[in-house]
Amino acid sequence: MRNLEKINELLEIFGHFDVNFAKNMEEKIDTQYFVLENLKNSMKNDEIFIKLVILNSIVSYQLCTTGERWWDEFSIYWSKNAVDNEKLGECYVKFLENSKGNRRLLNVKIKRIEKVAPFLENLNLLDFKTYYLDMEKLLENLSKNLNSKKDSKTIVFAVKMFGYASRIVFDEFFPYPMDIEIPKDSRIEKYTLKFTDENPIKFWNEVSKTTKIPPLHIDSIIWPVLGRNFDFKTCENKLGENFRYLLKLTEL
């Protein structure tokens, strides 16, 4: 069942947003973007930096803490610990086994790392630049290596975080493709129920087509706002008048 009144309100709000607004949200508001910037600045190897971001993304589920705190733990650890590319998976597993924020389903997550690490170890910075220009290809290859569906939450989330990491490394912005879907986590699922009880991915795909904002950029607008510790005052200072439309998203 759909709540058409609320859906129309949502679309009206999103009529004030575009890809550039989402980009500003990502770079000025999303704490996950900040921690990646901090990590990149503390590491000497951009290639390893991107590989670690992808590895962390594919095990970022069933956390023992918030997503924001988990990525902060990740950034702090790798800013202090070196990694050998040929032992990439082994080094990451050591971090995961001793992490505080990601202790559930460890065996399953370690197997995921072991599946994808050989693929990543064979890539260089030029390969990542190519993938940044064709993120759907990265989605496809991660899906194959992990034997997961392309709309799997962790796969599409990995592409989103890869986009962040690549933007930081290459100092260039390429929007996410329209065909890569929103990561369906508990925060998004709960919010979607305000509008419909149908599949959240299907619903946000429709919103994306109507607003012409790629689903991963829609995620960047709504996911931080729904967080427990979202600072609306800081957001107002950084985003200006569009701030009031973000506030309306929480009032629906």
From TrEMBL:
Which biological process, per GO, is one annotated for this protein?
base-excision repair
Which reactions appear under catalytic activity for this entry?
2'-deoxyribonucleotide-(2'-deoxyribose 5'-phosphate)-2'-deoxyribonucleotide-DNA = a 3'-end 2'-deoxyribonucleotide-(2,3-dehydro-2,3-deoxyribose 5'-phosphate)-DNA + a 5'-end 5'-phospho-2'-deoxyribonucleoside-DNA + H(+)
Positions with a binding annotation for 8-oxoguanine: Q32, S60, W71, F157, P183, D219, W223
InterPro entries linked to this entry: AGOG, AGOG-like, DNA_glycosylase
Enzyme active site = K153 (schiff-base intermediate with dna), D185
Citing just one GO molecular function, the answer is:
class I DNA-(apurinic or apyrimidinic site) endonuclease activity
What keywords are annotated for this sequence in UniProt?
A: DNA damage, DNA excision, DNA repair, Hydrolase, Lyase
Kindly indicate whether the keyword Chloroplast belongs to this entry.
Answer: no
Q: Which residues form the signal peptide?
A: none
Entries under Pfam families matching the protein: AGOG
SUPFAM superfamilies given in the database record: DNA-glycosylase
State which Enzyme Commission number(s) the record gives: 3.2.2.-, 4.2.99.18
Q: Give the UniProt family note.
A: Belongs to the archaeal N-glycosylase/DNA lyase (AGOG) family.
- Record's function text: DNA repair enzyme that is part of the base excision repair (BER) pathway; protects from oxidative damage by removing the major product of DNA oxidation, 8-oxoguanine (GO), from single- and double-stranded DNA substrates.
Domain text: Contains two alpha-helical subdomains, with the 8-oxoguanine binding site located in a cleft at their interface. Contains a helix-hairpin-helix (HhH) structural motif and a Gly/Pro-rich sequence followed by a conserved Asp (HhH-GPD motif).
* UniProt-recorded name of the protein: N-glycosylase/DNA lyase
